[in-house]
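Model it.
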Amino acid sequence: MTEFDASLDVDPALAVAVLEIESHIAAEGWDQPARLYALVDTAELVQREPALAAAMGLDSDREAGSLTAVEQDQLRRDLPLEVALESIVWPPEVTGCAAVVERLVLPPDADAHIPDDRTSAEEFAREHPERQEVRIVAGATRAGSTYCALRLRAHDDDQSVVGGGDLVPALLQLLRATLEEPGASGHERENQR
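Modeled.
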């Protein structure tokens, strides 16, 4: 697992949880579907679900101040992660959430040439000679902390994982919105109707 850089101004529990997710996903290789995780306070999980915590090898004393990632059901493959997040609201016992998604990244000078049509834009990105495949693991907490870990397919090793508090702002904004109290955001969400 990539080590967390304690000199960064981020929540260390969130950073460690994001990096643990990244390490777990990296072991499964590339071309993975998008995934979503609830992040729960480990000490509270041990108290509420002692059998589950025991099965996971967790105890409240050793895990105080840490977050445990709980993978959610697989997301629909035909629905982009960004769209799926618009309909999600986490219950109060969820401290934060994290998402994993693979994307193609293009150099800045390609922006002016990207077609407006989504299908054409996706084809343009797939065929661009300077495209980079990147795996993004982004996390956010109710307290407002954020952290991301990025791994490029071209540099697929633990030492090349880049981490930081605000590397993918649009995705982090969507994750934070899932943690807001109903009615606190301008987003319309399906399960609030």
